[in-house]
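Task 17 of the worksheet. Students: predict the tertiary structure of the chain below and write it out as structure tokens. Keep your answer in the requested format; marks are given for formatting as well as content.
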Amino acid sequence: MSTIITLCGKLNASLDWKEQIKQAEELSTEGKQIFWDLDLGLFDDLPLPLENEMQYRSLSLSISQFNETVEPFIENSQGVLLCRGNHMETDFAKKADFLSLLIPHLREELTPHLTLNFSLEALMYPAFQECEVTFKNAPPFFDPSAATGILIPKNQDPFSIIEKLQQEKTFFRLIPESFLTYQWDGLDKLFVLESGLSKEGRRSLQGFLATEGEVVYI
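Model answer:
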């Protein structure tokens, strides 16, 4: 169990985190775990357009300040929440691209966490694959750690398979075709929309079969 410490890193924030640092010192001394919540105002409290360079630099500076602040507590840190996904549904690609520019500024030791409304677009966005993503409003029986998966070729609709597994009350995860080799750990069975598979996807499936995984073509 970790304690959440929230730091305000919004555009006009003072970045005065003395009280939070004091709390982190106490928790660290007691050997307790910390989960950081770096509030950059993404995307419900950004006063300027995403294209504004000054705003981007200011948020990058907030992350740099955060990196320095948490350095003494790295061993006690479980990760950092960077985005709650507020108002990302509108202009998702544009906002996701903006977020993907900020993520690399974080310390490598800290896993970035995102909370997003469920969508295939969010699920398949490349820069989010290395983040811990919690989806709000996910479909019933969706479970990122499930042993049954659905492979999603590019531009294919997996909802017929989703409905089938939901009717069977089978928990499932959704795996973008291009990331299968990174996400097949713990996967026993994979449903595949064969008509949309690319050559690269077929090669990845051969690798999955070599791990004694089961493939069901639809």
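Marker's comment: Residues 1-138 form one domain. Strands lie at 2-8, 33-39, 77-83, 112-117, 132-136, 148-152, 173-176, 189-192, 214-217.
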